[in-house]
UniProtKB/TrEMBL annotation:
Protein name: Cellulose-binding family II
Pfam families referenced in this protein's UniProt entry, alphabetically: CBM_2 (PF00553), Pectate_lyase_4 (PF00544)
Key word Signal present: yes
Family statement: Belongs to the polysaccharide lyase 1 family.
GO MF annotation list: hydrolase activity, hydrolyzing O-glycosyl compounds; pectate lyase activity; polysaccharide binding
Domain CBM2: 29-139
Length: 486
């Protein structure tokens, strides 16, 4: 059944805001009577770039059906990646156009999008915006002042220790002062992408003591997809770097680290099957298009892990997977998914994000396995279900952010699985969590403007690793700023 979904977006306050007032005078270009307001917020900054969120508000009396926001960027600013809109940039002139599911803005309503950009100059915010050619004029707040990353200090979350019983009392990380992600001891050419490995991927099992990827192997740079595939399939340990857009299906063998930079994107999908000890960091995966529910369901996941163990997926941006964005099945185990973003930017019928375990009948391969940690991830929009939907394993879901409005449900604990749902933020979503023949223990979560079930029952489990969970109230800013490819 095809669903028509109205989308909303929850935007955190940031470092600097340009509030552009509504035009009330008669309009003779683009759309007569259109009246608009644009909020532009810097949400993160580092030595060579920044992240911004843009909210487009319809202050008129008629629906806006299809919108394009345009502005002039400061000298040296170059858009690298955008979500919830498609962009073009020619010199300093930037335009952002709606995607399928957020094209309509009701009178008094709003839509939003965000992006990352590099800069060789200032962090100056735009002085004006147009929506469909209509100027939304007004005042602009002062230009943001960049704080060099080298001056900031922070104790990485991965170094904190705690006895991880669900009843433990702790002092939330949110009570300390820190600048998420953009803090480092030197000013990097790209923002740092690793906050340190924690979770199930650190736990010894199946012949490995932890997850190290290609450590100890040679470091290579792939110039094209053929080179990337040849390196990834190699039987030798290897650290593989790439940038730009690569198109195809990437198969990854054991003992590999793959690191993207400068807007690295795989258009297609990534498959890990029968492998071990793999690290994927700092790139985007955008699934191929599919035409119908059945066609999508029969298609590939944007990232799929089968019969593999000790995998760390970190700072990825995964969108528009055909069957799913990132599915884990067939006895896979010891997996950590951290600081990543998941969503759908096309209004297809099958928008199911993260499935753990393919069938209730797979006990022979899955029982005692499918142990996964999700932390500091952001389901930002478009996904309808499975964030995640689990079977068999012990799944620890902590410090994640959910703003995918118009969804069916977020987290579901399925057959013989135990979910510890800890200190997450659910904002504007339907059915934050539910049960489907599994146990789910919910503690410390934030529910803001939510509806539907918030079911918690059973004893879940005690994670066999050290970690520190920050307060759910801080996640809207820290996860939006830090999650995804940089």
């Amino acid at each position: 059944m095809k669903l028509s979904i109205a989308r909303r977006w929850v935007i955190a306050t940031g470092l600097a805001t340009a509030l552009i007032g509504a035009i009330q005078s008669p309009i003779t270009n683009a759309q007569t009577g259109l009246s608009c307001q644009v909020n532009y917020t810097l949400t993160n900054q580092w030595g060579s770039g920044f992240q911004a969120d843009v909210v487009v508000r319809n202050t008129g009396t008629s629906v806006i059906n299809g919108w394009t926001v345009a502005w002039s960027a400061a000298s040296g600013q170059q858009i690298g990646q955008m979500w919830n809109a498609t962009f073009t940039q020619s010199g300093s002139q930037v335009s952002a156009k709606n995607v399928d599911w957020n094209a309509s803005i009701a009178a008094g309503g709003s839509q939003s999008f965000g992006f990352t950009a590099t800069t060789t100059g200032s962090l100056a915010v735009p002085s004006s915006f147009t929506v469909n050619g209509v100027v939304c004029g007004g005042s602009v707040s002062p230009t943001a002042t960049r704080t060099p990353a080298a001056t900031a200090t922070r104790t990485p979350i991965a170094t904190a220790t705690r006895t991880p019983a669900v009843t433990a009392t702790r002092t939330p990380v949110a009570t300390t002062t820190r600048t998420p992600i953009a803090t480092a001891t030197v000013v990097p050419t790209n923002p740092p992408v690793s906050n340190g490995l924690i979770g199930w991927a650190t736990v010894a099992g199946s012949g490995l003591s932890t997850t190290t990827g290609g450590t100890g192997g040679s470091t290579v740079t792939a110039a094209n997809f053929t080179e990337l595939q040849n390196y990834a399939k190699s039987s030798s340990p290897m650290i593989i770097k790439f940038s730009g857009t690569m198109q195809g299906t990437l198969t990854v063998a054991s003992n590999k680290t793959i690191i993207g930079s400068n807007g690295a994107l795989i258009q297609g999908n990534v498959k890990i099957s029968g492998a071990q000890n793999i690290i994927l960091q700092n790139f985007a995966i955008n699934g191929n298009s599919c035409s119908s529910y059945d066609n999508c369901r029969a298609g590939s996941d944007a990232l799929g892990i089968s019969n593999s163990h000790h995998i760390w997926a970190d700072h990825l941006t995964i969108t528009n997977g055909q069957d799913g964005n990132f599915d884990i099945n067939n006895g896979s185990d010891f997996i950590t998914v951290s600081w990543s973003k998941f969503g759908y930017t096309t209004n297809k019928e099958h928008r199911f994000s993260n499935l753990i375990g393919s069938s209730d009948d797979a006990a022979s391969t899955d029982s005692g396995k499918l142990n996964v940690t999700f932390h500091h991830n952001w389901w930002f929009g478009g996904a309808m279900q499975r964030m995640p939907r689990t079977r068999f394993g012990k799944i620890h879901v902590f410090n994640n952010l959910y703003t995918t409005t118009g969804n069916d449900y977020c987290v579901s604990s399925g057959y013989q699985s135990k979910v510890l749902l800890e200190n997450n933020a659910f904002i504007g979503v339907n059915t934050p969590h539910r049960l489907h023949d599994g146990d789910l223990k919910a503690v410390g979560n934030l529910y803001q403007n939510t509806s539907g079930d918030q079911i918690s029952t059973g004893v879940a489990f005690t994670p066999p690793y050290s970690y520190s969970a920050e307060a759910a109230s801080s996640l809207s800013s820290s996860v939006q700023a830090g999650a995804g490819a940089k």
